Amino acid sequence: MAAVPGDATDEMLMVRYQRGERKAFVELVRRHNRSIYNFVLRQVRLPSLAEDVTQDVFMRVVQNAAEFKHEARFLTWLYTIARNLCIDQLRKQSHRRHASLDQPQREQGDQSDAQLLGDTVADANPQASAERNALSSEVRSSIVKAVDSLPDDQREVFLLREVASLPFRDIAEITGVGENTVKSRMRYALDRLKDALCDFEEYARALR
Amino acid sequence: MDCEKFDRIVLDLLYDELDELTAAAAGRHMEHCARCRAIGSGLRATREVGTLPLLDPPEQLELRILQAEERATQLLPIGKRLGRGLSLLAGYAMRPQVSMAALLMLMIGSSLFFLRAQPGDREHVLVTERGVPESDNEVVTVLPKKLEAPAEAPRAAVHPAPSPRVEENARRDRVAEAKPEAAPMPAAAPQYAAAPPAQAQAARGSDGLGASSDDRELESSTEASSDSDASYDAAMAAYRDGRYSEAQRRFDEIASLGGAHAANAALYGAQALRRVSGCPTAAPRFEEVHSRYPGSVGSDAAWQAADCYRSLGELARARQNYEQLSADPSYKTRAKEAIAELDQRVADQEAAARKAAAAAAATAKGKPAAASAPAAKPSASSK
């Protein structure tokens, strides 16, 4: 079996996996399991559950590989699967009378988890790592809390934009709403985040 | 750009999803509008500082996923597994190496096919007068042994060969006669068609079948045709041996009796007559054959007649025949060439005649200069 080149697009890898090249799937998992895991984690909030859902996402890819159309975007397809599985999980959680998704984690007494996420941040954007390392743990914690406190529809748009780096057009396709609605939700999410950050010195420095 | 439009595109500007022109217009608007500048810088600062920290997934997660994939692949339903196998095969089939190999195989296969389509030894290749090899059908199915005999080459060298059309017609006639014999037994057809009548008879006798009434009828008709063949062959032999009088007599007999060989016999008879008595006698005979047997034999006869007219100096009649022949596709080119040659010949003749007339006039001028006085006398006397 031929080696998988690193510059192959996701769609090319998926086509090769459809033909039975397992290495292509391995490469796809390596590329996307981190962002999928973070997207799912911010939605379901429980790390162990996020692992299971992430695994389920890739299993859905395996089971439905034959249905993937070559002209479709792999990332759009992958995050559509991830979003649907997250919605399923959130629905199950609500049936079990777990906390409401709109309810901030702080109010649930799950502040330790939020702080843990803020303390163990990984770098989403390596180019800005120096600046990000300079951010205080307090700022990180505030960001996580602000994101967690977002309404579901705003949070999923924010995560798809910031974690998955998907363009607004693709987010609109995944969420099934118009592009202007997506931008509007994103604007609200950023405004909330701004409110959470405006008291910090880092924000004032960035504003200058 | 106004503030309303800026509000619509500010997120695209923030995430670099704008084209260059619109981004430049938005930048110019922010320079002049404090409100929009504040919105833009606020969102940019929020994005810079508020980047969501990402967690690394547990190390065993990737392994878990890959193990689950392996299990899931083994448990895939047969339909999906077959689809994947087909997709894999299709993927290999679409590779250029495979298509090149397929093309190579196709070339080799087609070469073998064409090689097999030309069986038999190629030692004897007959060519037409113009050096073009005769078609395969004629060589494979018809060639009688007599024509392949070594005497053929000297004959062709010594005697002017009849036109290819005549030979072709003779062969076609023989094939037409051989076909009815072969029709009831298609498997034996090539043997009968290619073998001389005697061999064909032997072959039919040895096939183990009883002689039915149909067979007897066939045999009687075959005997008649074999007699006709024999007399035609005898006439041809006389012609080839240079016994033209005998050949003419035999050909005339065959032509008068009619039958499959009548047309060719009439033409050969006229050719033999030309050998015996020359063109003045043969030309009307060729014309007669031409008028009696329309088609290829008639065209051949017209050609021969035109040839005779040329040799007799009757260029107008020759030209008339050539013009008629130019309507026949198989003679078109040759007839046009002959007409052009005739025209050239006529032009040469006319030029020669003019030159001779001019020379005569010059000679005549020289004489009257010397004898101008006597020439004036008659005019004076005429008054």
Written overview of the protein:
The complex is a heterodimer of chains A (208) and B (383). In chain A, 69% of the residues lie in helices and 0% in strands. By secondary structure, chain A is mainly α. Chain B has 383 residues and is mostly helical. Mean pLDDT of chain B is 73; it is low at 136-162, 175-212 and 369-383. Chain B has a domain at 3-45. At the A-B interface, helix 1, helix 2, helix 3, helix 7 and helix 8 of A face helix 1, helix 3, helix 4 and helix 5 of B.
Short summary of the structure?
The complex is a heterodimer of chains A (208) and B (383). In chain A, 69% of the residues lie in helices and 0% in strands. Chain A has 208 residues and is mostly helical.
Defining traits:
A: 208 residues, mainly alpha, globular, B: 383 residues
Assembly type: heterodimer
Overall geometry of chain A? globular
- CATH topology of the largest domain in chain A: the name is Rna Polymerase Sigma Factor, Chain: A
Q: What's the alpha carbon Rg of chain A, rounded to whole Å? A: 18 Å
What is the average of the pLDDT values of chain A? 79
Low-pLDDT runs of 5+ residues of chain B are: 136-162, 175-212, 369-383
Largest sheet of chain B: none
Shape of chain B: elongated
